[in-house]
Amino acid sequence: MSDQGDNKNETAATLLGSDEPPPFKVMNADSKAPLLLLCDHSSRRFPVALGNMGLDPAARRCHLALDIGAGALTERLAESLKTTAVLAQYSRLIVDCNRQLLDPGAFLEFGDGVVIPGNRNLGSAQKKARAEEIYWPYHYAVEAEIQRLSEGVCPPCVFAIHSFTPVLNGVSRPWQIGVLWDKDRRISDIMLHELQATGYLVGDNEPYSGKAPQDFTIDHHAEVGGLPHVGIEIRQDLIDDDAGVLQFSALLHTIIAGIPDKLYPTSISTGTKIISA
After folding, report:
1. Domain presence at residue 229
2. Which of 50, 147, 265, 276 is the most buried (most CB within 10 A)?
3. Is 144 a domain residue?
4. Nearest-10 crossing angle of helices 242-263, 70-81
5. Closest Cα to residue 181, out of 155, 208, 154, 201?
6. Would the pLDDT of 2 be above 60?
7. Rg (CA), the chain
8. Residue 202 belongs to what domain range?
9. Count of domains in the chain?
10. What's the average model confidence in pLDDT over 137-161?
11. Against a cut of 0.85, is the pTM above it?
12. Would you put residue 28 in left (φ > 0), alpha (ψ -120 to 50) or beta?
């Protein structure tokens, strides 16, 4: 991979052009369902101002650039559940929305044997532009949807949807689905039980752990506010085509749809949800 490729610098007043997509996409913004789907790594899009960041086409399509299948799965679930979803619209290689900005992985320079020339020796102004135009607008959108949904009868249950590569750094990863959690096990216990009953090989905080500091989106938006939450990881080779997305969206639809009723019992006398203090 050459450092001499089309690797433009952010020298313009703004990073994103007026004709480029916004940094986030919100689906079903009027939904009242107490569910919120998030996808930090749904897109491999680069801003025009950054060219190809010195990467060849294969690198721009690989798991370093996006979570393969995660965006399509999130959109399918949002459609079938008729629930709100927020998806990031630019590649994690521009700025990783699931990392703190001071984390070296937020502007990844090297990963899984691949050098990212466009992220080498970034200046503070370049990082600031990416944060202000892509990172924070996405997170502000997530926060806005949480505030809106929190005005309903039940606090929203937050689901962060990701995918993982079958092999990383030469090590095979056998799990088909991973359920990630940190301190709050309200949703993860339900999902682990129901997914394991399907016969899939399910990772309990595998192949990543919800306790890791890199899990910024869940920590920042759900854990701090006490919202029920979970991270879901699907192995990428299982959702890299339409058939796989359809299969796993059907599986997850049933489980996710039933979670609010399991977490928030209904009063028989009033028919309203009983929320613990």
Report:
1. yes
2. 50
3. yes
4. 50
5. 208
6. no
7. 19
8. 24-263
9. 1
10. 97
11. yes
12. left
